[in-house]
Amino acid sequence: MKIDDAIEVVKPHLTQKRFEHTLRVRDTAVKLAEKYGESKLKAELAAVFHDYCKYRSLDEMERIIKMDPLPKDLLKFHHELWHGPVASILIEKEYGIKDNDVQRAIYYHTTGRANMSKLEMIIFLADYIEPGREFPGLQEVREVAETNLVHACWMTSKNMISFLMSKNAIIYPDTFYAYNDLTIRTN
Ligand code: DGI
Ligand code: FE
Ligand code: FE
Ligand code: FE
């Protein structure tokens, strides 16, 4: 699918704010892809679709998780964790986008996982550092993202877990697996 068509497809599914976030994730992901030698086209496509299912009804997402080869344990965790896995399935069903690299980058953009590919790290990081975001410690991550992709992802993962723990949130195993793996890869 051409990227301009992808943007048109995604737009009606998102709020204006979320759509603008998506476009900034796209720009950020393209820059990271160029810097770190990843396919710009794959980065763009994954970025444009990463939040495609953010506003699906919980019933619909639950049905897709139950029917498709997705881990059922997702249903025991916060529904914020569902939109990436569900989007990775629906883009293939609805638009025939069958590209494992792109689908995995969308799937894992919220939690990360152990052994993330370069493309997965680019989407995970771009979602966090896009210029519309403001969290404590974000400026430092943006600086590291200029020179060290793995280290910037590790910082993202660490910040995310600290934030979730400060809220007493229940943390999905892949979120921890990402942190452990990135710690080994970067320290
Ligand atoms: O969709 P976005 O808002 O652009 O960002 P996202 O998909 O990266 O994250 C969505 C939310 O999910 C965000 O508030 C952080 C949260 N999150 C990430 N990992 C976990 C998590 N929430 C819980 N409860 N557990 C996790 O492991
Ligand atoms: Fe998301
Ligand atoms: Fe994220
Ligand atoms: Fe996002």
Automatic annotation (TrEMBL):
Which InterPro entries does the record match to this protein?
Answer: Diverse_Catalytic_Enzymes (IPR051094), HD/PDEase_dom (IPR003607), HD_domain (IPR006674), YqeK (IPR005249)
Instruction: Please provide the record's keywords in A-Z order.
Output: Hydrolase, Iron, Metal-binding, Nucleotide-binding
Question: Into which EC class is this enzyme placed?
Answer: hydrolase
Q: Which Pfam families match?
A: HD
HD domain span: 18-132
Catalyzed reactions per annotation: P(1),P(4)-bis(5'-adenosyl) tetraphosphate + H2O = 2 ADP + 2 H(+)
- Give the molecular function GO annotations: bis(5'-nucleosyl)-tetraphosphatase (symmetrical) activity; metal ion binding; nucleotide binding
* EC id: 3.6.1.41
Stored NCBIfam families: bis(5'-nucleosyl)-tetraphosphatase (symmetrical) YqeK (TIGR00488)
Query: What is the protein name given in its UniProt record?
Result: bis(5'-nucleosyl)-tetraphosphatase (symmetrical)
Starting at the broadest rank, the lineage of the source organism is: Bacteria, Bacillati, Bacillota, Bacilli, Bacillales
